[in-house]
Design goal:
- With about 550 residues, the protein is mainly β.
- About 15% of the residues lie in helices and about 45% in strands.
- It has eleven helices and 27 strands.
- It has helices at about 10-30, 105-110, 145, 215, 260-270, 310, 395-400, 415-420, 425, 435-445, 490-495, and strands spanning about 30-40, 50, 60, 65-70, 75-80, 85-90, 95-100, 110-115, 115-120, 130, 155-160, 170, 185-190, 190-195, 205-210, 225-230, 240-250, 315-330, 330-345, 350-365, 370-385, 390, 395, 445-465, 465-485, 500-525, 525-550.
- The strands form seven sheets. Strands 17-18-19-20-21-24-25-26-27 form a nine-stranded antiparallel beta sheet.
- Strand 20 and strand 21 form a beta hairpin.
- It starts with 10 loop residues before the first helix and ends in a 5-residue tail after the last strand.
- About 25% of the residues are buried.
Length: about 550
């Protein structure tokens, strides 16, 4: 017969087991690692990032390049710094390390567009930020500027209006003027343009932003607010390739603001002024002897009021289609593209669409002479009153949020939705203090159309080795038209004695430029020389025609 045997731990055994558990916990907690990060010259790399591989645990090196980090005993550290190759260090029990990073030659040899030429990033001394095409191609925006938001330090990009295609304001290192135009100078493929809204995101090769005076000095006073240099894509030698890129986006406001219900609104009106309560409830009969719909405040409990946000904001779709053709030989390269962008606004009766086309030819005539030609076309259409009017004095969003959710005793909710101006405001002498945002959006036609044609060409002649002459010219013409009509129901027609009126403005902008540069580049011993002599002449003219008609019959 089997007889079980039982073993018990003595007091000493318990103490031994407890000590073993403490040692295991201590081992799992890891060790503290101290180290220093140096560059190729053994100088401290201030701000270098040290992170544990596969974890979110990390620190930055201090002013002396030193760091302290608590990690597991056999962890792997990832050390990185801008312009240097990332290095992985396996600790293997070490608690003191020194890491020397190696410069990234690819980054330093990267060619940056500056002024009227290019230079290696390693030779750059001014403040220049660069954005590659891969960083902006996937953004669904009506303007290239919108895709740059948050990608460049010291550059603020804000939308001028909530309307689709309204454009963006770009401020480089703050606003340099209080009364003048704070926009930077835009240079596309070497030529000045008034804005960059006509460009397609998929057609951008690179964008450089010159942020300080030393970088932008060559452009003179017009570059006081910085310079945005944009290079578009060109052809590449090889077989002809045709590519298409298309996308569709569904847009909807996921959460609207929580506003007062009819009960909360009426209760608040009574707290502000007891006299206001009679507008919304009365414990008596009307002129026909019928009891009022709302006898007390409690009658509003559970009542569904006017959802002004729901009436004004609508789910919508936007589309972006791009097709391009590229190819050529070593002597002849070509690139053509066609894009179409359509954005229907979430705000009622608003939208934007843009059609752009571009063709570029690069021709090498002989070993010393080359030629390139670029032709651009763009048409944009903007529709809608936008979220602001009267040069920003009228805020449509504020009207949506401040409109009352119930008509009270004097009108039904349907009648309130059909009123151009809140009748209650008019009766108290507040005039246009509360405009119906739905009627305003439906009663105003505001269509803006712009058509742009541009062409630029350049000839490069290598006179001798290192000495190059370049002459280039551009011609740009933009025709725009704005049609505005205020129908009955708009605040503008109300101000005009409730009589509709409208206006049409047409404009034409012409700009041409001729630039000639003589550049000498050479390396003498250990020194690189880059000397340029340039001459530029430009012309710009603008014409406007405005017509207005008033007192249309209803």
């Amino acid at each position: 017969m089997y007889k079980p045997t039982y073993h018990t731990l003595s007091k000493r055994g318990y103490i031994t087991l407890l000590a073993l558990l403490v040692s295991i916990i201590t081992f799992a907690q890891g060790v503290t690692v101290k180290g220093t990060v140096l560059d190729e010259n053994k100088e401290p790399l201030i701000g270098a990032t040290i992170q544990v591989k596969g974890e979110n645990n990390g620190v930055a090196a201090d002013l002396d390049g030193n760091f302290t980090l608590k990690v597991k005993k056999n962890a792997t550290l990832v050390v990185s710094y801008i312009g240097y190759l990332t290095q992985e260090v396996r600790l293997q029990g070490k608690t003191q390390i020194t890491v020397q990073l190696t410069p990234d030659s690819k980054t330093l040899d990267e060619v940056i567009v500056v002024g009227y030429g290019t230079m290696k990033k390693s030779d750059l001394t001014g403040s220049v930020a660069s954005v590659a095409s891969k960083d902006i191609e996937g953004f669904q925006t009506s303007s290239v500027a919108g895709a740059l938001g948050g990608q460049i330090a010291g550059v603020q990009i804000t939308s001028t209006d909530g309307t689709p295609g309204a454009g963006f304001n770009i401020s480089i290192r703050g606003v340099g003027t209080l009364t003048g135009d704070a926009s930077p100078l835009y240079i596309v493929d070497g030529f000045e343009v008034s804005d960059i809204d006509y460009l397609s995101n998929s057609d951008i090769e690179s964008i450089e932003v010159l942020k300080d005076a030393s970088s932008s000095a060559i452009y003179g006073a017009r570059a006081a607010n910085g310079v945005v240099l944009i290079t578009t894509k060109s052809g590449k030698a090889g077989k002809t390739t045709i590519s298409y890129n298309g996308s569709a986006t569904y847009r909807k406001i996921s959460k609207t603001l929580d506003l007062l219900s009819p009960y909360e609104f009426v209760k608040l009106q009574g707290e502000v002024n007891e006299a206001y309560s009679s507008t919304y409830f009365k414990a008596e009969n009307d002129a026909d002897g019928n009891p009022y719909k709302y006898q007390t405040l409690d009658d509003y409990i559970g009542v569904t009021g006017v959802d002004w946000q729901g009436e004004t904001f609508n789910p919508t779709w936007s589309q972006d289609h791009n097709i391009s053709i590229m190819g050529g030989t070593d002597n002849t390269k070509y690139n053509g593209s066609l894009s179409r962008y359509v954005e229907n606004g979430i705000f009622k009766n608003s939208g934007f669409d843009r059609t752009t086309a571009k063709f570029r030819l690069d021709q090498k005539i002989n070993k010393k002479v080359s030629f390139n030609l670029t032709v651009n076309y763009a048409m944009t259409n903007r529709k809608g009153v936008g979220t602001s009017g009267d040069s920003g004095r009228f805020n449509m969003l504020a009207q949506i949020l401040s409109a009352r959710p119930t008509g009270g005793l004097k009108m039904t909710n349907e009648e309130l939705l059909e009123s151009a101006i809140d009748p209650e405001m008019l009766s108290t002498g507040e005039s246009l203090a509360q405009v119906n945002p739905v009627k305003q959006a439906e009663s105003v036609t505001n269509d803006k159309r712009a058509e742009m044609w541009s062409a630029n060409a350049a000839v490069n002649w290598q006179i001798i080795k290192g000495l190059t002459f370049k002459t280039s010219g551009s011609y740009n013409t933009t025709n725009n038209r704005t049609d505005i009509f205020y129908r009955d129901g708009s605040k503008e027609a109300y101000r005009n004695g409730q009589k509709p009126y409208g206006r049409t403005q047409m404009g034409r902008d012409v700009r041409w430029t001729n630039t000639n540069t003589l550049t000498w580049k050479d390396k003498v011993k250990k020194h690189n020389y880059d000397v340029m002599l340039a001459h530029e002449v430009s012309f710009r003219s603008s014409e406007y025609l405005l017509g207005e008609a008033m007192d249309f019959p209803l």
